[in-house]
């Protein structure tokens, strides 16, 4: 994990402790997040996960905005408990008051899409192609059944795939 990212997490905690005049339990930090999300705060595990690809491509903004965004979730949870909304007033208070940052809900980093395999399922209806994800295809192999909403027949794998 990059040292700068660890230092930024620690700096965010130090800022929050100075602002609220109380200590906060430090989280575990993981650099094992993929996909569209830049970061995720796991409230009950006191864990922060960050996306290494988005960090590398957007380092400056990531350290300035994304790290405090995720830390603010854990701070809000420790201060106000589980009954608050993820991007509600408590979280916004921390973003504005502690970090002096705009409470932006989402990043605007360019995200490269991975090629996804779709598994084609069919029923007796004409022109019935149902593109299943790999996860849904696996569930079918484990015994789950899916029905066509029109004819109510079980969808059957055609043996065909497509890449999107």
TrEMBL record:
NCBIfam families from the UniProt entry: PRK04860.1
Protein's GO biological process: response to stress
Taxonomic placement: Bacteria, Pseudomonadati, Pseudomonadota, Gammaproteobacteria, Pseudomonadales
Domain of life: Bacteria
PANTHER family (UniProt xref): PROTEIN SPRT
Origin species: Pseudomonas cremoricolorata
InterPro entries: SprT-like_domain (IPR006640)
Name recorded for this polypeptide: SprT
Stretches assigned to the SprT-like domain: 7-158
